[in-house]
Amino acid sequence: MASQESLNFVYAEQMKHHPQGYALYEPISTEVLKPGACGYFDRYGSWNVVAQLDDPESLQKHGFLDPSEELQADHDKRKVVWGPKCSVGVKGAKVDVEVGVSANGQGIPAEAKAVFKYSTSTGFGAILLTAPPMVKKAYLYESPFQQWVKQNVQQIDQLRGPEVRQYGLWIVTSTWSTSQCSINAWKQASKEVVVGFKARVFGEEFGPEGQWFEDEMDTDWTHYSGDDERRMVVFIGALRFRFSRMPWREAKLKEMDRAKSTILRSGEEQAEVIYFQSEENAEVGYEVDYEVLGCADDT
Fold first, then answer.
1. What is the pLDDT of residues 75-99, one digit of tens each?
2. Hey, what's the torsion of the CAs at 153, 155, 158, 161, to 10 degrees?
3. Distance of CA 214 to the CA centre of its chain
């Protein structure tokens, strides 16, 4: 199996076709990771908090300004049921098993009413199983978060400059959470992952939804559980800001050129780019742009 550093990254990369956003190989409690959270994932995939944008005490403690625009919660706190979520290239195939008979000695109990085998011909495979219901929480709109970073970028650089330049700065805009989940990730192209399901109703192409049973001999499974109040986040939507170092003179010229371009193309919407001068070295500047992870229609 890959190192923990690469496994977190590979899992997220291979699950990015799911519109819910950035997939977490190690789910995080909703007590820690929630919409409005600002921080970064380090090389081990651990979440490091910088501030919580909807918590004035958190902002004041670290010398940050409050958001200039009120954060608006998405009141459509939808609850849905998912079937298995698989990485790119993983295929599921139903195994014909007689009801009341254990699945071919694979450690699947006889109460399973449907059994699936999952495999991939590529160098990596992963499957995420989640207990229903899945709960989404989110803030609307990107602009309040863009403006907050623009107003606080010097303080962010002063407080956590080396880290955010290396890992980026993340602002979480949405979370998908569950009370319980299981994750299996593997690198052997010949491996087959066997899962039994209590339900016969097929929720998705890759297998039924609801309660599941795992092959007890498969040591690649990891399990996470919370409760109704402290759930486990498995996907996040976020704005990920990237800091690029350059000579301040070059950054200033790029900022001026962008301002001119904005005036000439006033009818076109352009993504916000931030330029700022280092307080430690007046000859050094930074360009800060961002990408959006996750989309609106993400059920």
1. 887 778 888 999 999 998 888 765 4
2. -40
3. 25
pLDDT band at 211 (very low <50, low <70, confident <90, very high): confident
C-alpha to C-alpha distances, 113 to 14, 109, 132, nearest whole angstrom:
29, 10, 18
Total-model pTM: 0.87
For residue 221, what are its two tokens? 């499974």
Residues 274, 277, 283, 286, CA torsion sign = negative
SS3 call for 123: coil
The proportion of the chain whose per-residue pLDDT surpasses 90, expressed as a percent, equals 57
DSSP annotation string for 126-145: EEEEEPSPEEEEEB--SHHH
Give dist(CA 15, CA 11) in Å, integer.
6
Burial of 159 (C-beta count, 10 Å sphere; 0-12/13-18/19+): middle
Burial 202-224, CB ≥16 within 10 A → b, else e: ebeebbbbbebbbbeebebbeeb
- Residue with the bigger pLDDT between 113 and 178: it is 178
Cα–Cα distance list, 72 to 50, 280, 299 (Å): 21, 36, 20
Q: Alpha carbon 21 to chain centroid distance?
A: 5
Check whether 55 has a pLDDT greater than 60: yes
